[in-house]
Structures are given as C-alpha cells and as structure tokens.
Design goal:
heterodimer, A: Fumarate Reductase Iron-sulfur Protein, Chain B, domain 2, FAD/NAD(P)-binding domain, 4 domains, five-stranded parallel β-sheet, B: alpha+beta, 5 strands, elongated
C-alpha cells in the first residue's frame, strides 16, 4: 500500500452520485406514547354525579383536598342529599395515591392520563377537578368501579322470619341485628351526614352510627335520645327517608340506618335501663303548665322535652294506651306492644303525666284544658278514614283499615272471613292486608295505579307478597254488592285501568271500558287515606285556629293562629309519618319555651 | 395409576421434605406460599435458588400487622422453568424487629432492605448499605408504620397554600342548612 492511496481517498465521493435523488428509506411516523392503563394523573370530577359527601377530603392524608362552594354558573345542586360542595385539590400536596378515588361512593371522582402542567406561579396548582379541566372526562384512566372501590356496598342482611312462618302469628317479623352484625353494618357509614338533612327530625345519624361502630352503644343511645324520645319505634317502623339519600346508596345498598337505631335502642331492655343509660338532666320546675292533647308521637315528644326543661306536663289521651297511630295503626308484628310500653314507661319515669281514657270533648272540655294551662299542644293525628265513595260501602263487613287495625290492636274481635279485598296502596293498606292474612284469609289488594306507584314501603310490599297477599294493580272499585239480606258484603265489582301519561304529573289511571270484573268477598277493607276530626274543640276556639284543607296552619315553631295553642303531627304536616310528628313535637318545645320563658323576662 | 400432582404441589412437597415444620399453601395457579420461621428464610431462599431453579428474585416487601404486634417480610422469587411465584413469608416481632441479611443470595435484595429499614424500621444486622434511601434527615418514626400519623406530620410540616381559606366542613354546612343542633357530647363521633 502506497502512502498516497488515491482510490481510498476518492471512493467515499462516489456517494455523491446519489445527490438530489429520492431516498430509498421511509420516514417513520412519530407515535405519541400512550400512558399506562391505570395511570394516576390529575383528577377529574363529574360535577353533576358528585354529591359533595367530602369522603375524598377526609381520606386524604396530605390534606390536599378541600370542599368548596363553586360559582353559581356551575349550577351545583343544593338539594337535600347534596352538600353543594365540591372537592378542590392542592397539587403541591397531592401524592397521587388515588385513595380519594377508591373511597368515592358515587364514582364521580377519577384520575386522568394528563400529568404535565407547567406554571411559574405555584399558587396556580390549586385545581377544582371538573372545573379547571372539563376536557378531563375524555382522558379518564384510574377510574372507580364497584369491584375496585374500597367502599363496602353490600348491606349486612337482616334476619327475618320465613313468610310461611309469619302468617301463623303476630310474632315480630324482623329479628334485629346482633352485636357483630351491627358493628359491621355501622362501619360501612362514611359519616357524611347528608342523611341528617332529609330526616324531618334532623337526628344526629353519623354520630350515633359512629358510636355503634366504635362499640359504644350507650353513647349511641344518648345521642339518639337527644331529639327523639320514641327511637325504638322509629328503629322498627320509620319511613327512613335518610336511607334514600345515603351516599353509599348511589352505587350500592344504603347503610341500614333504621336497623342500627333499632339495635342501639334494643340494647336497653327496660325503661329503667333507658333512664339509667340516657340519664338526662331534668331542669328545676319553672312553674308553667302545658296541656297536651293526644299521646301520639308528636304529643309525647313535646311532653318529654318540656318535662326535661322543667315544665309541668299533662297528656290527655282518649284511648287505653299511648302511642297514637303507632299503637293502634301499626300491626304488632312490626311494632310489638312491649316495645311501646317500655318507651312510654320511660317518659312517665321522667315526669310526664298521661291521663289515659280521657277523651277531650267528652271526659274533659277543651275549654278547661285551655284555661288551666299556660300552653296547649294539639297532636291528634288523622283518625277519621276517607270514604271510598262507592255504592255499598256502608254495608256490614266493609270496614276502614284504620278501624280494623285499631280493633285488632285493641284485642277486639273482627271476623274477616275467608276472602278479603283491601283497597289502597299505602302502608295502611298493606298493614290491613298482612293482618288479615294472619287471620287465615285469602287477601287481594286492589290499587288504582301500578305497583311501583304504591306509596307503601317496598319492604312492606315484598313482605305482603311473601305472605301470600295478591296485589292487583290498576284496578278501580266500582260498587260493592250486598247479599240476599241486603246487609252484608257479598262481592265487589271493579274496573281495570290503563295508565295514561300526563304532562307534569304522574301517570293517571283511566278505566278501560267493559273490563268490569266481579270477585266474591267476605270483607272489604278500605285504606285510601285519613283526615283529622276537630269536633272535640268547642266552637269559640275552632274559629280562632286557622285551618287549610283540613290541616292546622302553624308557623315554623308549630304555633297556631292562637298564640297559646301549638299543634303538630299528621294534622299539621304534609308527610304524615311518625318521624315528622316527632320533629313537630320537638319544634313546638322550642316554640313553647320561647313564648313562656321570654315573656317572663 | 399413580396420583398426578400439579407443579405447585410438587414444589410444596419438595420444600416440606427439605425443611422441617414448614407450612406451605398452594394459593392458585403459579402461586405458592411458604410460611417460614425467620431462621429458615435464608436456607429456603438458597435451596430454592441452587437446587430448584428459582433463580430470579422478584420482590421483598413488608406488611405491618399492627393488631398482632408483628411485621411480615415477604420474599417473592420466580423460576423460569416452572413459572411459579414462590412467596416466602416470615413474621418478626414488632418490638425491635430484625432480620438476617440476605443480600449475598441476590444482590438486589440490598436495595429492598434499605427501603424496608427506612420505611418500617426493620434492622438487617451485618448488611452494608447507605443509611438514607429516600428520606433526608429523617428523625421521626419510620413513616410506613401504620401507627405513624401521616396527617399530623403533614400538618406540622407544611404550610397551607394561599387561596384555601374558603374551604368548608360538610358536616357543619349540613347542620347549619337544616338547623340541626349537635350536642357537645356527640361531637367526638362526628367526622374529623
């Protein structure tokens, strides 16, 4: 090889022959690298699905999440069951552990694939997910599902008697939680307190459930008695609107708030034990006297809290036992007699005087009560049943459900025979049907709308079906047919109906012409509603109390247009359930206290 | 015809034959647990690596069983032949937890031991490795222990960013909106 190798020097230049020609290779497309499937980037919150329970904020160990009110333009729901607050994240603190997503009961909070954000202003790292990144909904990555969530969506099942076993007696159907079950069920609660707003009485639900979860049943009972003196009754038969808004219920089964209250109250087995555990502070007598008409839930509530506040309270009750509709209207397989006895016994031990068998208007005049007391509370309920308004309803063996239930609960005898038809779809109708089923009758319920329109509790409807009650929806009674004697019921004629959608209202049942059917029956039980009976109040007072469609008009402290008269319960509120009556009674206490004690000063 | 055993059952039997009183459990396909005393662990790891072909070290982690006063160390190793993940688990006393150094079997264990020493406070006497792993100048309790209050530490250590003053408490807001009066004795059960 010579020193000067010309060939070697020039060979690389041969490449120049390709100069200006198209390349043989192809440029590869630049592929954006996608992030991992469950990547944990910035949060995204579906603002409409979120209910503002604040569980994300509570779980965050870095205190990165605040619950804040958003501007009006976002139209955040302020309804009951929604706190109206939404989470805001401080990304200076967030460590992307995603526990907030794992504990979100609604599944509205998720993490996205987005992770890069650059700003020289450190304070701009405060983001409200869903507001600051509305596009995030298309980038979801670490999402929450019922399977992966750390929430416990399944309720501890309640033990019950078998349907076939139930109809044999009036034994209590629901058996109640034992200690282990109650602790487990209570620990499902996330203490968000959305339920308390829906409860008419605003009971301290998360507090007493938490006390049960922590194993302190005595504290739970004390918290419950803070604003409800008949909690065991509520624990068994409350309409429990609280459970409808339970955060867990969005994707699972609501915490069994009612059964937990029942558990806590049943731990105190006698009225003496209640007194020992609750051990309320009773204030010194203040010299004022309050008369209460009706020993139902509203009257007893007013009586209890007035007695604790030093008032001299006397309750006038027409019947043999206290409890009002909860005593006479609710069958004993749902609310046993000794349970009510225990609760009312406790109220009497605190100093509430109850005069049983004292009907106002007959045994004592309203005038006398009014003049002898500094304030009067009327809690008379709805006792008078509505008429069915069909031919033949006054025949023997056609009886209103409230009357039938009252007789059975009062241990009177009413023979319903073999075949019974109940008319109506509320809890009273179902109660009537289930009681009749316990007297060996074959029971059919006629209801004008669909089963899903029934105002009764679904558990009650299911219970009735388990016990062999037949429900015939979309059936309107036409007339009741008498037997040869013309005195007794023989059959009922009804007409089937179809549901017609109506704008702005629930569908209306419209009779289908020619679909009339007749079924033979021994007894017809009507349960289409009740109203109040004011005949006991003498005229001079009736005119002073303002009524509106059969209900007494009160202000927000249950005061009627006569300043000395307060009222509550079914005769006042629209919801007509026990817990609303208790709430009325509790409010009236504040009203009476304000009226009497302030005037003194 | 003799009984046929799955590869997982065979592994479990091999380990039980070699080590006295060893409890094994075939958890599912490709997963076998071995519950060992802390003295047995290094022998099991070495035996599995040299004799059974479990040549790949996957993971070493620690679980804090606060209620029973124990830490659990979990060594996960894998064999490319059987494709089984073998979990060797052992429990340590939570007071003064210490475990034999095993980084001479697999060098990677060194890093995991450093992490566990820092995060759980488990000591590995005789092992050489930097004292600090992620935490700098840490004087508090090991932070992955369950009794370490992260929230308290965070609140003591970091200041709150500007603009967070408008935060609200859900419980208070609901009570205010509905006019509920929560009695003082009940407040200790409210959400914190």
């Amino acid at each position: 090889m010579s020193f000067f190798d010309l060939k070697g020097l020039l060979r690389p230049l041969t490449g120049l022959s390709q100069f200006g020609k198209n390349p043989h290779t192809k440029r590869m497309d630049v592929l954006g690298q996608d992030t991992a499937d469950r990547y944990r980037g910035f949060h995204y919150n579906d603002l409409n699905a979120c209910i503002g329970c604040g569980n994300c904020s509570t779980i965050c160990m870095n205190e990165a999440i605040d619950m804040v009110e958003l501007a009006a333009e976002f139209n955040i729901s302020q309804d009951k069951g929604n706190s109206g607050l939404r989470p805001r994240v401080d990304y200076g603190r967030c460590c992307w552990c995603a526990l907030c997503v794992d504990v979100c009961p609604t599944g509205s909070l998720n993490l996205t694939k987005e992770y890069d954000y650059v700003s020289p202003d450190a304070n701009s790292f405060l983001w409200t997910p869903g507001v600051d990144n509305p596009y995030g909904k298309d980038q979801l990555s670490f999402t929450s599902s019922v399977e992966t969530s750390l929430m416990n969506f399944e309720r501890i099942p309640m033990r019950e008697l078998e349907g076939t076993e139930r109809v044999k007696s009036f034994a209590e159907v629901v058996l109640g939680y034992n200690e282990e079950e109650a602790r487990a069920e209570a620990s499902r609660c996330i203490s968000c307190s959305l339920c308390t707003e829906v409860c008419p009485d605003h009971m301290h639900i998360p507090e007493y459930i938490n006390a049960i979860a922590k194993g302190n049943d005595d504290d739970a009972l004390r918290i419950i008695y803070d604003n409800n003196p008949l909690p065991e009754m509520c624990g068994k038969v409350c309409t429990r609107r609280c459970e409808d808004v339970c955060a867990i219920a969005v994707r699972g089964e609501a915490v069994a708030i009612r059964w937990l209250k029942r558990y806590a109250t049943e731990r105190a087995q006698t009225s003496d034990l209640i007194k020992e555990i609750v051990n309320p502070e009773i204030q010194e007598a203040n010299g004022y006297k309050v008369g209460i008409i009706g020993a139902g839930p509203s009257g007893l509530t007013a009586a209890y809290y007035l007695a604790l506040r030093g008032f001299d309270v006397t309750v006038f009750e027409a019947k043999r036992f206290g409890g009002g509709m909860t005593m006479y209207g609710i069958p004993k397989y749902r609310l046993p007699m000794d349970s009510l006895d225990k609760q009312i016994g406790y109220l009497q031990k605190i100093g509430v005087k109850i005069n049983f068998n004292t009907r106002v208007g007959t045994d004592i005049t309203f005038d006398e009560i009014y003049k002898k007391h500094d304030a009067v509370f009327i809690g008379i309920g709805f006792e008078k049943p509505w008429k069915l308004g069909v031919e033949g309803e006054d025949l023997e063996n056609s009886i209103p459900a409230v009357e039938y239930l009252r007789m059975i609960n009062n241990e009177e005898i009413f023979d319903v025979g073999k075949k019974v038809v109940v008319i109506g779809g509320g809890n009273v109708a179902i109660d009537g049907a289930r009681v009749a089923a316990r007297h060996n009758a074959e029971v059919t319920i006629l209801y004008r709308r669909r089963v899903e329109d029934m105002p009764a509790d679904w558990e009650e409807i299911e219970g009735a079906e388990d016990e062999g009650v037949h429900i015939h929806p979309q059936a309107i009674p036409v007339r009741i047919i008498a037997d040869e004697s013309g005195k007794k019921v023989k059959a009922i004629e009804y007409i089937e109906a179809e549901m017609v959608a109506e704008e702005g209202a629930r569908p209306r049942p419209v009779p289908i012409e020619g679909s009339n059917k007749i079924i033979e029956v021994d007894t017809i039980i009507g349960a289409i509603g009740q109203e109040a009976d004011y005949s006991f109040i003498s005229e001079e007072y009736v005119n002073k109390i303002e009524l509106n469609r059969g209900r007494i008009v009160t202000n927000d402290q249950q005061q009627t247009s006569d300043a000395k008269i307060f009222a509550g319960g079914d005769a006042v509120n629209r919801t007509a359930d026990a817990i609303s009556a208790i709430a009325d009674g509790f409010r009236a206490v504040k009203g009476i206290e304000a009226m009497l004690l302030k005037t003194k000063k | 015809m003799g009984t046929t055993y799955s590869k997982e059952e065979i592994l479990a039997q091999q380990l039980q034959t070699a080590f006295e009183h060893l409890i094994t459990e075939v958890v599912r396909k490709d997963t076998v647990f071995a519950f060992a005393t802390k003295e047995q662990v290094s022998s099991i790891l070495l035996y599995a690596k040299e004799k059974l072909g479990y040549i790949s070290f996957v993971h070493l982690s620690c679980v804090d069983w606060l209620e029973s006063g124990e830490f659990e160390l979990v060594y996960i190793i894998w064999s490319p032949e059987t494709k089984i993940n073998l979990f060797v688990k052992t429990r340590l006393d939570r007071e003064n937890p210490s475990m034999e150094n095993t980084d001479m079997i697999w060098r990677q264990i060194n890093t995991y031991q450093r992490e566990i020493r820092e995060m759980f406070g488990v000591e590995f006497p005789g092992f050489v490795g930097e004292k600090e792993f992620i935490l700098e100048d840490w004087e508090d309790a090991p932070p992955m222990r369950r009794d370490f209050d992260t929230l308290e530490y965070v609140n003591d250590t970091f200041f709150e960013r500007e603009g967070r003053e408008d935060k609200q408490d859900v419980r208070e807001r609901i009570a205010k909106r509905s006019g509920e009066e929560i009695p003082d004795f009940a407040k200790k059960y409210s959400r914190e």
